[in-house]
């Protein structure tokens, strides 16, 4: 809650070794994956020896919002107001009061729900449908006309899609693209099985057919994969905080329009999420005029490859919005699509899932064609802290998968 940018460090001990976690802009927020008893410090941006605030993460896994407020004097409203009058004015004062109001609401929210409030107050409820997760192994069924590809179309039929806007839409009674290479069944049944209630996580077996997996791997063979390390922080003046070694895989990006098979996978994913496929592509011709933008709410498919000893340590798929952002657009759901199996290690892990039987993490083992769906948002619009997940280190073999992220209420 400072008008000055600050650095956030992890600290091994008071005055001991430290590691840079983030550089935070004025009146902003950030996050890090950590554990109880870990200690952190805020320092001045230009003078790392100047410690502004120190805190230690509590033993309660939901004690995860910590603030540096150089103006607030607990129990002395007069001194607090004097500080504000002396230090802040105009937009800075307005941003501070917004952030302070959100912080106070977060305390009430925590007392009522037991969860930390990880967004800025107020934030609207998600606009998309959300599957229920009332108990383990609960099942839901939904059908799609985007049936499996059972044979590979010739190369000339897999050219890029150039149509745009409403011309991309298919009526319910229209044949799907390249129907002659698909299953003869009119519908594909997709079964969602609840793996976890908190976070809401589901398994969908055989979401992809072997031919579709083959197609994606063929595309991968021609892609220039780059090291997908996770960057941390950055100040207003463009100073970079560095690159974290929490992610050591390689990735590339696949556009929906790359081929009719990828287009069909997006359409199938839209049916799985029970949202209009037009929301997962750039729109036009008056499609969804209620939205402020015609930009897709889905990111490009992220194609990821893990080799031996590579991993992605525990992280969230969401970020943190500016206090002045009225929409607070964030990733809403993640669909993981596994493209191979049989590796040693490499499980998708939810270390903080809530259950009454074990303290062990929930592990999802990759299987060819299987999808895992989980939500980064809660029904009330808060982010789901329990959606933290990791890709475990690979000890032998290799691992291929794709990520499909859908945003709410917009894609930024």
Strand content: 25-35%
Rg measurement, Å: 23 Å
Q: Quick one: overall form?
A: globular
Biggest sheet: strand arrangement: 5-6-7-18-14-21-12-11-8
- N-to-C span: 24 Å
| Computed structural class | alpha+beta
Query: Given the structure, what is the number of helices?
Result: 4
Q: Quick one: biggest sheet?
A: 9 strands, antiparallel
Characterization of the model:
The strands form 5 sheets. The chain has a 9-stranded antiparallel β-sheet with strand order 5-6-7-18-14-21-12-11-8. A 4-stranded antiparallel β-sheet has the order 2-1-3-4, with no helix packed on it. Strands 13-19-16-17 form a 4-stranded antiparallel β-sheet, with no helix packed on it. Mean pLDDT is 93; it is low at 231-243. It is α+β, with helices and mostly antiparallel strands and 412 residues long. It has 4 helices and 21 strands. The radius of gyration is 23 Å and the shape is globular. The chain has helices spanning 77-87, 90-113, 210-221, 260-273; strands at residues 6-11, 18-24, 39-44, 51-56, 139-144, 188-196, 201-204, 226-227, 230-231, 243-244, 250-254, 301-306, 312-315, 330-338, 344-345, 348-350, 362-364, 371-375, 389-391, 394-396, 399-408. The two termini are 24 Å apart. The longest helix has 24 residues, at 90-113.
Provide the fold topology:
Blueprint: E1 6-11, E2 18-24, E3 39-44, E4 51-56, H1 77-87, H2 90-113, E5 139-144, E6 188-196, E7 201-204, H3 210-221, E8 226-227, E9 230-231, E10 243-244, E11 250-254, H4 260-273, E12 301-306, E13 312-315, E14 330-338, E15 344-345, E16 348-350, E17 362-364, E18 371-375, E19 389-391, E20 394-396, E21 399-408
Antiparallel strand pairs: 1-2, 1-3, 3-4, 5-6, 6-7, 7-18, 8-11, 9-10, 11-12, 12-21, 13-19, 14-18, 14-21, 15-20, 16-17, 16-19
